[in-house]
Amino acid sequence: xxxxxxxxxxxxxxxxxxxxxxxxxxxxxxxxxxxxxxxxxxxxxxxxxxxxxxxxxxxxxxxxxxxxxxxxxxxxxxxxxxxxxxxxxxxxxxxxxxxxxxxxxxxxxxxxxxxxxxxxxxxxxxxxxxxxxxxxxxxxxxxxxxxxxxxxxxxxxxxxxxxxxxxxxxxxxxxxxxxxxxxxxxxxxxxxxxxxxxxxxxxxxxxxxxxxxxxxxxxxxxxxxxxxxxxxxxxxxxxxxxxxxxxxxxxxxxxxxxxxxxxxxxxxxxxxxxxxxxxxxxxxxxxxxxxxxxxxxxxxxxxxxxxxxxxxxxxxxxxxxxxxxxxxxxxxxxxxxxxxxxxxxxxxxxxxxxxxxxxxxxxxxxxxxxxxxxxxxxxxxxxxxxxxxxxxxxxxxxxxxxxxxxxxxxxxxxxxxxxxxxx
Amino acid sequence: xxxxxxxxxxxxxxxxxxxxxxxxxxxxxxxxxxxxxxxxxxxxxxxxxxxxxxxxxxxxxxxxxxxxxxxxxxxxxxxxxxxxxxxxxxxxxxxxxxxxxxxxxxxxxxxxxxxxxxxxxxxxxxxxxxxxxxxxxxxxxxxxxxxxxxxxxxxxxxxxxxxxxxxxxxxxxxxxxxxxxxxxxxxxxxxxxxxxxxxxxxxxxxxxxxxxxxxxxxxxxxxxxxxxxxxxxxxxxxxxxxxxxxxxxxxxxxxxxxxxxxxxxxxxxxxxxxxxxxxxxxxxxxxxxxxxxxxxxxxxxxxxxxxxxxxxxxxxxxxxxxxxxxxxxxxxxxxxxxxxxxxxxxxxxxxxxxxxxxxxxxxxxxxxxxxxxxxxxxxxxxxxxxxxxxxxxxxxxxxxxxxxxxxxxxxxxxxxxxxxxxxxxxxxxxxxxxxxxxxxxxxxxxxxxxxxxxxxxxxxxxxxxxxxxxxxxxxxxxxxxxxxxxxxxxxxxxxx
Lengths: 423, 496
Known about the structure:
The complex is a heterodimer of chains A (about 425) and B (about 500). Chain A is an alpha/beta fold. Chain A has helices at about 15-25, 25-40, 55-60, 105, 120-125, 165-200, 205-225, 265-285, 305-310, 315-330, 350-365, 385-395, 405-420, and strands at about 1-5, 50-55, 70-75, 85-90, 115-120, 145-155, 235-245, 250-255, 285-295, 300, 340-345, 370-375, 400-405.
């Protein structure tokens, strides 16, 4: 009468498709929520999933239903002291009690949020959607080209692991058919002779027939002696290396850690770079990142030190630009590499140094680069560095500069700097 | 004598579940005479339960973002522990499919088997609405067909187009049911065979509808300009499926699928109190009987009673977590009350229910289950005793008055009014706005006119504008919404 079925091992993600569709449909709202969320995060947990909310109003599914107003009769349980004919004050606000069902209508002011979890992948997808490194060029190179191995037909030699069994056996059948052909033809002839003799009334033990049969046997042995498979049959899958246009890129991250950058600003700068770093790691497989920090002297450091160590001193911005130039010259040939740089600073600099920076950029660095982004983290008046850079920006299209006031600006500025540009 | 107790552990195994099912089935069929479909009991994990939830409780359904939204929010509230998952989901099909959750303890599983596999199951099989409106034999096949068909439309016409169409259909889903005809039973083969045929015919009929051969008379007014449709139509989706001028055949088929699924749920929306009350009554009765016969232990009963009381808890109107009458509580109390009236009627009961007081409770309950829906069930069987027990009172909220009036309470003069008010509260016809197609301007701009017949002066909620946009998308031409008040005055409230 009853059947029990254990369905626990059946697919669990029956709703995955529906969930994807939901996310796809509300991508715009979710993106906004993700951008808000990333501003609220601390430095260390940017790289994780997130709970996001979108206004319930946006995702409601409308149906015809009664609105507030008119006359409605309701029955409620739990009467203690009401008598027929009593008049009750309307309950304030959300309408508990008397008009219990009115909640949805009246609660329209406080915007309800529909909140749910995004996985890390989904979060990052939405976060970096539509962003890219500007002006990335696939360098077609002669010398140090990258290769991709692709299939190309069949060969007669190769490694045993590459033997193509089907193809080899086809060869084997063909060879056996070809080499056995004359013998089979001979057998047919002999059989016809036997048949002719028998038709003429010869006995089965007739010596002529016996000779013919012996001959047939000999031919059969010849056929059987053909090897089933021969090295001649073997076919190997062929591979060739095809030169690939590469998109090698390097990103130089330059951060000011001087004394004028207080802890809050350093945090803002670090957040900017963490975003940048996540973005690069996610969207580009082979990208190198160079971390340079500077006060009066610049230093190339590793990721850990760049994001987490504290050091402080005066400010000479050109020291970092000099070091960048050295690093690029030694390690990153602009003919091979797409070179990017992002610099964050509070704009403080030795006055005379700003002009040096400008010249360094214009003459040495910018010609090598695809894109140079400068963010200034200051709520105050701009200083000499900003004005010097403005001159650079006016002259070079691939130099961009933005200002960040507080944590709220980081992501918008980041998006702005790396948004996909329509060609 | 050795103990008959089936198990004292809270861990379940398939063998134990089968024992319970056998005993419960024996009681249900042989002792209480319940008539059920065969049971197909499926054990699933909590994630699968959330999956099942989000496709409106159907074991298989087409893809749509709104199910994803449902899934996401259910998953969310469940993970945060704000909500326990329902213990079971049961599907009105033959065999009747019930889901048991892996995480439940043995007493819970037994409760669910009694509740779903014998309670709900017999209700599905017996109640007149389900008999008239759903074909339990064919629903799974039909859903398979619907899912395949919509998937193939997505392939052919693009996900976006199908999604837009489904959005619009879902907006009108509650207004896509027939109230007065019996639909022909569906089956997948039948549907598929008829589908192409239907697609062609519908298209040709629609074209015919709009064929305008110039047959003007001398006076310039076209003859045969009678209002159309000749009678107002309340099934908006059906009207659109058959008459919208610009829909492609595949679009009509999808409208039809949504309409059919809505129709399938129509009885469930009208029998919430009865259905849950019936199932709760039977799990209570069956498990207690098991206890009386010595199959379950005291510990088992304690756990069972704890869940049971949780299910039928009714907070009073002024409790912070009050959200209306609990259909389980009301339904269960009414079923129990009917049994009480039969078994030990008071003078009041004899006065109010002369034909059932002192009768055979099994027969009376069976009759009630078969022939009523929530509205009529309450109007027929809600007793003064129960009104007192629930401390029911009726209030009237009139926006022309400053205060809310208490119109009836649980006292001699109030019983009838109270019962009437409560029955009305479960009347689907007054819970949902009454909207009908009244006119199509066939000779002019092909505009569609809908009329909202206002009940108690209650207006439509703001979302109506948005729904109207969906109607317009389906209809393809101008859509008007008129509102008719109780004096019969017609007022145009929206036009797009």
